[in-house]
Amino acid sequence: MSEPAMAILAWSIVTNIALLSAGLKPLQTFWFNILVYAGSAQLAVMPLISGDYPLWTVWLTALIVNLRFVIFSAGLQPHFKKYPLWERLGLGYLNGDITFAKFMHQFPPTNAQSGQTELMYFLGMALANWTVWQVGVLIAIIFGTYIPKDWGVGFAGTLALIALIVPAIKNRTALVSALSAGLICALTINLPYRLTIVCSVIAGVISAVLIDRKYGMTKA
Questions:
Q1: Each residue's pLDDT tens digit, 178-220
Q2: Same domain, yes or no, for 86 and 129?
Q3: Number of separate domains in the chain
Q4: pTM score > 0.70 for this model?
Q5: How far apart are CA 34 and CA 32, in angstroms?
Q6: Domain of 150?
Q7: Which tens digits make up the pLDDT trace of 10-39?
Q8: Buried residues in 124-139 as b, exposed as e (16+ CB within 10 A)
Q9: CB neighbour list of residue 85: distance below 8 Å, 6 or more residues apart
Q10: What 8-state DSSP symbol labels residue 107?
Q11: Which of 93, 98, 110, 134 sits a CA distance of 20 to 30 A from 71?
């Protein structure tokens, strides 16, 4: 199994064990992952749902956590703009952090051709990652209570994600964004309801926009 698949599997298992521990039933957890293919958002909103917080706080938290997908969509737009809306919506559903990073590494924006090769590459990777995530869901549902905590599954997933993210930091904008998000994450780690995720995403996006405006993405 490749490094991306290992990272996705570990992250899925950890996320869904957390969902089950928070009170979701196995069937609810399964359908939650079919409808909401977004691990970070799931972890962020689960304490709010279980705490019976107002629905608007759940939606707002999920929106903020997933704001990065607006940037992802802008990056993918030149590659898939010729396809109908319903097809682009399907591609958006299948997109994820690792899928986007690997795709943009293979097909940089400066070389966007909007061709069949790009679509097949994206679909092959995205469908494989989606399938691996759902396998992790089933593992968590069936075997979650039997997985020893000292195995460090969550830490293994984090390490695998770091190994994928670091090579993708190729310019000043990406570096400042990553450092800003990491710093804010460390400073807000004790905030309740996983608000550290929200704060880190906002910090990363804002710093990236500011640096990009000042220096431009192509400058080192």
A1: 899 889 989 998 887 667 777 887 888 888 888 878 775 444 4
A2: yes
A3: 2
A4: yes
A5: 6
A6: 3-168
A7: 888 888 887 887 778 899 999 999 988 888
A8: ebbeebbebbbebbbb
A9: none
A10: S
A11: 134
